[in-house]
Every structure is written in C-alpha cells, then in structure tokens.
Amino acid sequence: MAGRITLTMIKPHAIENGNLGNILAKIIEAGFRISGMKLMRLSLKQAQEFYKIHEEHDFYKPLTEFMSNGPIVAAILEKDDAVEDFRKLIGATDPSKADEGTIRRLFGQSTKENAVHGSDSDENAKIEADFFFSLLERY
Ligand code: CMP
C-alpha cells in the first residue's frame, strides 16, 4: 500500500513573490492535511544535505545556493497516496512543461525556481520528513 505522507518545501522565490498563501490554499483544497509545518532559512550545508542525491548534477550548486538564500516553508502533508497525488498537483519539474492549473505551472519560474518541492517516493518522503521534523513537531 502507498504511504500516507509526503514532504514539501515552498521555495524562496514563491514566498518572496507573495504566493505562500495561494500555494497552501491549493494544497488544502486538494485534500491534504498539514501534519507539520515550519518557516525557516536553510543553511547552505543543510540544503546540500537535503539535495545530496543530486550532488553529481550541474544544477546542484545553483540549486543549493538558491534554496539557502531565502525563506522556505517545509511541511509534512498527509493523504492516501500522498506522494503520487502531490506530484500530480504540482506538475512537471520544469514549470513550462507542467499541466495547466498545477502549482508549478501557476507559480514556478524555471526548473530551479519551480515553486515547490515534492518527495519522489514513499521512502524519500520518510527520510525528508525526518530531516525537518521531530516527533514533537508533528500532529
Ligand atoms: P525539487 O522537486 O526540489 O527536486 C530537485 C530539484 O532540482 C528540482 O525540484 C529542481 O528545482 C532542481 N532541478 C532538477 N533538474 C534541474 C535542471 N535541469 N536545472 C536546474 N534545476 C533542476
């Protein structure tokens, strides 16, 4: 059975552009329950650790610098089939290729500045949720 949680980060440009509320509204309207949430600024080291799986890629350095250069909101989202349903809600990594109405199509600017992160598997959702949240920070 598919897992019930996924981990999202709302990225710095989306918060700085005033779209945090719009994005959270879309997430809640789609039936996700927020079971943990925090506003924070990642250190470069934390961003590098979070995206370690991408460290061989050319985009790793600009991505981790971008993600540690402003505020992010991290959240655990709960729902049946959370990983798959959230990936449908946010759309393709490149906002210009994402379907109409998806969060990345609406609020993303480029492949790097694509408004939100979403876990790509149940296994990574657990790892990523544990990266940000202790048990005391979940409801
Ligand atoms: P995210 O869901 O946060 O997971 C990995 C991130 O790497 C992805 O969203 C993009 O922001 C970024 N990314 C993936 N591919 C590229 C690329 N080709 N160029 C720039 N950034 C990328």
Key features?
139 residues, 7 helices, alpha+beta, Alpha-Beta Plaits
Please characterize this protein's 3D structure:
- This protein has 139 residues and is of the alpha+beta class.
- It has a single domain (5-137), classed as Nucleoside diphosphate kinase-like domain (Alpha-Beta Plaits), CATH 3.30.70.141.
- Helix content is 40%, strand content 17%.
- The chain has 7 helices and 4 strands.
- It has helices at 12-16, 20-29, 44-50, 60-67, 82-90, 103-107, 122-132; strands at residues 5-10, 33-40, 72-78, 116-118.
- A 4-stranded antiparallel β-sheet has the order 2-3-1-4.
- Adenosine-3',5'-cyclic-monophosphate binds next to strand 4.
Topology, element by element:
Elements: E1 5-10, H1 12-16, H2 20-29, E2 33-40, H3 44-50, H4 60-67, E3 72-78, H5 82-90, H6 103-107, E4 116-118, H7 122-132
Antiparallel strand pairs: 1-3, 1-4, 2-3
Bound molecules: adenosine-3',5'-cyclic-monophosphate.
